[in-house]
Structure to design on (248 residues):
């Protein structure tokens, strides 16, 4: 829970009361937490999550999603995007977009991550996603991450993408959007297999950076990318970044 002076601080008591009541009115599963907060009179609930934090290439993507406080059988099976198959995520993503009260997706570039660091970039992406909503929520639930500078009251929820339906929805929106970006980047920067590993630091991915030197979408401040680029440079670095950028 947030500390004194934080936007969430005045709402500690009602939020705690809401959490104690979770499930007592017959609403269970992923909707229970969101419903309890709404029942506490805190307004619409936005769930926020990200995808790509642990990658070493490509953007970090954040999504915010407000779902209606009612049963949504069309979202049966919704949970943390990492627990879902790609086919399940692709099936759920347009349904979430259709039933949501509001949703938004934003991307933070690799260059910004290198400049600011992953944690500031992550929280910035979450703030931007909430700000991009065309309906203002009364309360925000995040997946275990405090978001400094978010002016709305909010609560970081441990494993939130598994226990909050709105966070689960945001996790799917972010993951699907980012995966599509990585497929586009794979076509732009061939030779790195970005469509397959989605920018995560697999052995094959790092071997390709050692061979080609990296592309503008790599996070150059990351240790694994820096080490692979050092191997490339030690081998003569015959391809320039510009050549890698423009090869087709």
């Amino acid at each position: 829970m947030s500390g004194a002076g934080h936007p969430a601080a005045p709402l500690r008591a009602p939020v705690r009361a809401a959490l104690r009541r979770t499930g007592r009115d017959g609403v269970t599963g992923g909707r229970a937490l969101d419903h309890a907060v709404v029942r506490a009179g805190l307004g619409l609930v936005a769930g926020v999550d990200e995808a790509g934090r642990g990658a070493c290439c490509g953007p970090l993507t954040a999504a915010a999603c407000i779902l209606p406080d009612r049963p949504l059988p069309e979202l049966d099976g919704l949970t943390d995007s990492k627990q879902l198959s790609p086919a399940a995520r692709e099936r759920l993503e347009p349904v979430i977009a259709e039933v949501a009260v509001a949703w938004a997706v934003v991307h933070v570039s690799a260059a910004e991550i290198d400049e600011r660091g992953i944690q500031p970039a992550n929280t910035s992406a979450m703030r931007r996603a909430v700000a991009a909503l065309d309906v203002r929520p009364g309360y925000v639930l995040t997946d275990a991450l405090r978001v400094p500078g978010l002016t709305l009251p909010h609560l970081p929820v441990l494993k939130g993408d598994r226990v909050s339906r709105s966070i689960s929805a945001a996790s799917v929106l972010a993951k699907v959007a980012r995966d599509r970006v990585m497929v586009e980047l794979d076509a732009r920067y061939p030779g790195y297999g970005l469509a397959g590993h989605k920018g995560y630091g697999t052995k094959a991915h790092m071997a390709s950076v050692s061979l080609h030197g990296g592309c503008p979408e790599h996070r150059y401040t990351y240790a694994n990318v820096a080490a692979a680029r050092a191997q490339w440079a030690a081998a003569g670095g015959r391809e320039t970044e510009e050549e890698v950028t423009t090869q087709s």
User: Anything to note?
Assistant: The chain has two domains: 9-184, 189-246. Residues 189-246 form one domain. Strands lie at 45-51, 60-66, 102-108, 139-143, 154-157. Confidence is low (pLDDT under 50) at residues 1-6, 240-248.
